[in-house]
Amino acid sequence: MSAPKTAGQVHLHQEGNIAVITLDNPPVNSSTDAVRRGILAALDAIDLSQTKAVVLTGAGNNLMAGADLRELENEPTEPTLPQVTSALESCPVPVIAVVKGHTLGGGLELALACDFRLADAAATLGLPEVSVGVVPGAGGTQRLPRAIGLPAALDMIVSGKPVKAAKAIELGLVDQLLSETEAEAQYTEILTYAQNYNSGKHPLSQREVAPADEAELQAQAKKLISRSRGLPAAAAAAEVVLTAGKLSFAEAVAAERSQFLALRGSQAAQALRYLFFAERAEPYTPSQAIEPRPLKRVSVIGAGTMGSGIALCVLNCGYSVDLLELNPDALEAGVKRIEAELEGDIKRQRLTAEKRDALLARLNPTQDINSVAGTDLVIEAIIEDLDVKRSLFKNLAERVDENTLLATNTSYLDIDQIAADIPNPERVLGLHFFSPAHRMPLLEVVKSAATSEQTLTTASAFAKRLKKKAIVVTNSWGFVGNRLYAAYRRQCEFLLEEGASPEQIDAALEAYGFAMGPFKVGDMSGLDIAWRMRQQTADTRHLRRYVGIPDLLCEANRLGRKTAKGYYLYGDDNRPQPDPEVARIIANYRAENGIEAKPFSDEEIQQRAVIALINEALMLLSEGVCQRAADIDIALAHGYGFPRWRGGPIFIAQQMGHDALNNALDQLAAVSGKGHARGDANLLPPNADAAEE
User: Fold this and answer.
1) Which residue is catalytic, options 102, 432, 438, 676?
2) Segment 180-205 mean pLDDT
3) What is d(CA 587, CA 298) in angstroms, rounded to the nearest whole number?
4) Which ranges of the sequence are coiled-coil (predicted)?
5) Per CATH, which fold does 297-477 belong to?
6) What percent of the chain has pLDDT over 70?
7) Is 403 a catalytic residue?
8) Is 432 a catalytic residue?
9) Is 411 noted as a catalytic residue in this protein?
């Protein structure tokens, strides 16, 4: 092997008659100015008279995991990625890409510009640009359809979902899988393949696009765009992909680049980049360096829907789990739920039967509370009753080591009261999972008055291993997520009282990008849950504006999907249908309370709901509930179906300007009535914490 002819982030080695270009920009070989210049310099430095083929590979685990998103904050500089892909394609000798690790975005566009693609069996390939608000900008929307056909390319690009190497070879995205897995042996295999390669140049730009049914493509694009919930880049991506075969390659690539440049500075792209960096920041930083305690064994108390979901989540991440439930029938049902979920993963080919069996071998279902002895962490997921939880924690404290972490999954109860009279209260905290716990990514790590930095550091490391988006919050009613959602739902009930219908409010907010409207969510969760909570606070109801419509529905046994009727009617297909009876209940309520219904536009509904979220976010900041302002936006995006491309209430408020924000807060206060607390716009940070990362 010759000495490298280039240095820095790209290296060129000559291995006999094979030139090897290695990207070396840790940790993931992301595309930067220096990397792009390095690739072009390496191509220029190759002695073509002594070279049969070029190998493009990456140091470490990846070829290239995409662009450095910080570059998108500024105007593009040369050399651009399209210039690099063009240079790879026009190289006089064949270029063989080695696809490994995460080969995404610009990394896959580099590979598509090569003549042949070898892939490590563990590689992941994709063009996820829509997830950060743009479209592929270096020929990906045109080369991918030529490699795998329009239907598959449309699905990959508009959804942004990557594929594994096995699927990639099935699609024709890669040409051959590498058999070796150890680095040195794999390198030898790559060189041997390149030395034996005799197939010449095969640029995808010169390949015809396989014909596909236009009507089917349009229907597929419409469905994919609908799933994106209004993400602007999804529609733009579909439009550009569908030009493949209709325009010349050069014309289509120019259209792609135009869309990329138009989207990169859009508010949606800014919002998505903001969340990208916010989610990757550490959720908690102690005052001094602290090593998290090692956790090997976790005990979950309660085998209901939440408890069994938590147990499954923890099992999936390699822990041994005791699932404790005193009721034998409930314990059996909890274990069956876990087994059913795993069977579903096997059917979806996400899990093998062998891995399922190994996972279940780490599950210890038990009715014996003494089984918690020797565990490292206990997570309680029983009924929301303060006295019952306090009794349980006292019982646990008598049976576990003094350093065992004790966590409650409570949604609303006061953790300080739960921890009262517990020895070593610094080990007590909240771990608030969201249902279903094994799927929902949000985890609120709740700090009580006594919780130590050691405990929070350990909990943060635990959350990371669970692959959760964790936010650290202080002990307060509803913490962050539920409190935000309560303010949002309350404002939607005000709109309902004032004249909007459940159907219009849901439709308006779904059009805004929410996964589901608030009244559909209420029906799905069960209207009796919120009803019981309202009954518990009936003595203070006179202190605030109160909408009685939800109570009337519950009194009529309209409890949501569980009774096949709530705000909507539900048939055998479980799809919500408007119900004239609900309209009658609402109309009668307005008449009895002297309320004259007024019309609302969808935009007015959206503005009221979003400003209510912003106002509550400001209240959370004023009370110091959050560690970081961006945690509010993370909570809504990952726990409540808020559209990622909108950023979140903190991000939106920052775009509004001080005067506009204050005017909106004043208008919200005016329409919200008695008991409304107005947030302070001055508490809004000038730039979101995550955007400064």
Assistant:
1) 432
2) 95
3) 52
4) none
5) Rossmann fold (3.40.50)
6) 98
7) no
8) yes
9) yes
